[in-house]
Write a structure and sequence with these properties.
Blueprint lengths: L15 H41 L5 H13 L3 H19 L2 H22 L10 H21 L7 H11 L5 H20 L3 H22 L4 E8 L2 H12 L4 E6 L6 E10 L3 H11 L4 E7 L10 H4 L2
Antiparallel strand pairs: 1-3, 1-4, 2-3
Helix pairs in contact: 1-4, 1-5, 2-3, 2-7, 3-4, 3-6, 5-8, 6-7, 7-8, 9-10
Length: 312
């Protein structure tokens, strides 16, 4: 769900004489940065897979999950099996999604497979401790690696590509639900391949750790809560938000569909640590307020992440 849009926008320059030079320099700089992120991410991803995931005998979703099951049955290298699983998905992505997306994914898959089989596997030690810890540590390392790969503008393929293809066939199905279905099938299959129920349970732990680490690295600590407050006292609530939370708010006019009465909607975004104080302010100011809360993964703007940092 983080690989749907990877193309970066270039800022327009109104001075025609400088436009080509500035854009060329920026493209070259971003290309080097993206390649470094991709290689570093692939290295961390490979270490997590080889040192922790493989010895744990789990399949935490995605193409690598299928490859790990194939490795368990046949003994063939995980990297090459991952690339083999991704090949038909890459062809379908080329035909039905985006050629640019397919090319970037193919490059990322190739680099990950080469590093895993020829760089990490021959020299990296294997963790032989508790299976639970192996699943957790592996999930963390794989999540860090995947986050770097996503930040480079690429993806590791697998369930990401399959999820978009699934959604193209069934557009009414949300991409998150499609990914959940695909990974659920892979986790279920791992029970029969590894011949124990723990394989799926530890696989879920590893998959959860991956997801949390990816979200933390990509979105950072700027996650927060957005509150839509329908109230008869918008100015009082907005004033207290400004004074007590050092935040601002937006007041929108509204009208009750049932009562037909004029009302106001106060929109406010705060960090998670500030949300309890926001609820107290609303309760003390207007007990009859109606509040809708939405969790935000990233907040850009004054008081949160600077816009110039967010688009880099």
């Amino acid at each position: 769900n983080n690989s749907e849009s990877f193309c970066k926008c270039l800022r327009k320059d109104w001075f025609a004489g400088k436009k080509g030079i500035k854009m060329s320099g920026r493209i070259n700089k971003e290309s080097v940065r993206d390649m470094l992120l991709l290689v570093i991410g692939a290295l961390i991803y490979s270490v997590g897979t080889q040192s922790f995931i493989v010895p744990a005998n789990i399949a935490p979703g995605g193409a690598v999950g299928i490859a790990l099951m194939m490795n368990y049955v046949t003994g063939l290298p995980v990297g090459r099996m991952t690339l083999l699983v991704n090949l038909p998905l890459l062809v379908l992505a080329w035909l039905y999604l985006s050629r640019r997306f397919a090319l970037r994914t193919a490059v990322a898959c190739g680099i990950c497979s080469i590093i895993l089989d020829y760089v990490v596997a021959p020299i990296c030690p294997v963790y032989a401790g508790d299976r639970m810890m192996s699943s957790l540590y592996g999930g963390i390392l794989v999540g860090i690696g995947m986050a770097f790969i996503f930040l480079s503008g690429s993806t590791t393929g697998g369930s990401d590509v399959a999820g978009y293809l699934f959604q193209k066939k069934y557009p009414h199905v949300q991409i998150g639900r499609a990914l959940l279905i695909i990974d659920g099938i892979i986790l279920s299959l791992s029970i029969f391949v590894f011949r124990n129920v723990d394989a799926a349970l530890f696989g879920m732990i590893s998959l959860y750790a991956q997801t949390k680490v990816i979200d933390t690295i990509i979105y950072g600590s700027d996650a927060g809560s957005k509150a839509s407050i329908i109230t008869a006292h918008p100015d009082e609530i907005a004033g207290r938000i400004i004074r007590e939370l050092d935040r601002s708010a937006t007041i929108l006019p509204g009208k009750g569909a049932y009562s037909g009465r004029e009302t106001s909607v106060v929109l406010c975004t705060v960090r998670k640590s500030e949300f309890a104080r926001l609820k107290r302010i609303i309760h003390e100011t207007d007990e009859n307020a109606f509040v809708m809360v939405t969790e935000t993964t990233e907040v850009i703007g004054l008081g949160f992440k600077d816009f110039s940092d967010a688009v880099q």
